[in-house]
User: Which sequence fits this backbone?
């Protein structure tokens, strides 16, 4: 037998033997828990958490699990985390910024952060005929939804709102500001106000399928809790939460050769010329000059995300160099 045929035969037998082995592609609850914890502890935004405990994994399909448990912050207080794993891949993960009380530990509800499950609610009609007509057109393959930022932003907003309504109570208003699209993933920050009173800043991620439908994502609250229920719970003193972001010093380049420099706390300069600078809230700033409006969103890790709008509807993302 020629050497090449003999080698192919040996390789085929080895692959067949491996596939026949019941443990060759085994993936169980222990593997799911380890993958979930690795993903969370490797995520820089969750670096203040450690000591996972009370972790459980619920099988949802072949090599697919929902994992949840508790981690401790630097003050040794518990926070709930969860992950969703599809076919051995951790597709979403988060840690709630809310401290879990002893009574809350008895429940599995996640408070303060959310995971947008795969097609969990996304098929629902939005109630906006124009938006729903666009969705139907994109489903039929007419044009690309990724050329329509307004549609993607609305689709993401609708999905997050449904989850907030379900998990935290009726939403009065939800605004997603300065979204950034990369491939099929939309990220950004926003603010939600509730019918019961109170509001929270949040960050979000929406992942779309090729038709422009939200297939997964997550949201998490930023900063301190401004919910006025804090003053009605009686007795206790509210936690001060994390420090509010401020404009960092940075240099950046925008398309068209616009060089941007920002001093810490402002102002902002375009090609050495000072701009009109204003603070919209603790996470969002805007600089205007040279027929350009620069929108600055502060990520949870304190880094800036820059998008610009210029003449004739020109828009894009600026590259931060430091």
Assistant:
């Amino acid at each position: 037998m020629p050497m090449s045929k003999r080698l192919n035969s040996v390789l085929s037998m080895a692959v067949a033997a491996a596939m026949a082995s019941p443990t060759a592609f085994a993936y169980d609850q222990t593997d799911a828990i380890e993958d979930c914890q690795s993903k969370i502890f490797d995520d820089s935004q969750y670096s203040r958490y450690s000591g996972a405990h009370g972790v459980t994994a619920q099988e949802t399909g072949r090599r697919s699990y929902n994992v949840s448990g508790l981690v401790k912050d630097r003050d040794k207080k518990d926070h709930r985390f969860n992950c969703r794993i599809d076919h051995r891949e951790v597709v979403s993960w988060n840690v709630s910024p809310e401290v879990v009380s002893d009574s809350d530990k008895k429940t599995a509800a996640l408070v303060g952060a959310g995971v947008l499950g795969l097609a969990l609610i996304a098929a629902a009609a939005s109630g906006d005929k124009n938006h729903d007509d666009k969705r139907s057109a994109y489903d039929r393959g007419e044009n690309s939804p990724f050329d329509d930022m307004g549609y993607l932003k609305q689709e993401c907003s609708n999905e997050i709102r449904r989850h907030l309504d379900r998990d935290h109570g009726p939403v009065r208003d939800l605004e997603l500001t300065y979204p950034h699209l990369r491939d099929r993933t939309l990220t950004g920050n926003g603010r939600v106000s509730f019918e019961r009173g109170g509001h929270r800043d949040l960050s979000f991620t929406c992942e779309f399928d090729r038709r422009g439908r939200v297939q997964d994502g997550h949201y998490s609250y930023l900063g301190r809790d401004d919910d006025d229920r804090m003053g009605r719970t009686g007795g206790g003193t509210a936690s001060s939460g994390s420090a509010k972001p401020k404009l960092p010093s940075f240099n950046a380049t925008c398309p068209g050769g616009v060089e941007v420099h920002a001093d810490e706390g402002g102002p902002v300069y375009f090609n050495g010329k000072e701009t009109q600078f204003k603070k919209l809230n603790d996470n969002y700033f805007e600089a205007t000059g040279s027929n350009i409006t620069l929108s600055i969103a502060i990520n949870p890790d304190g880094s800036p995300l820059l998008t610009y709008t210029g003449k004739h509807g020109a828009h894009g993302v600026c590259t931060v160099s430091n």
The chain has two domains: 29-232, 250-320. Residues 17-24, 103-114, 117-123, 225-244 have pLDDT under 50 and may be disordered. The radius of gyration is 23 Å.
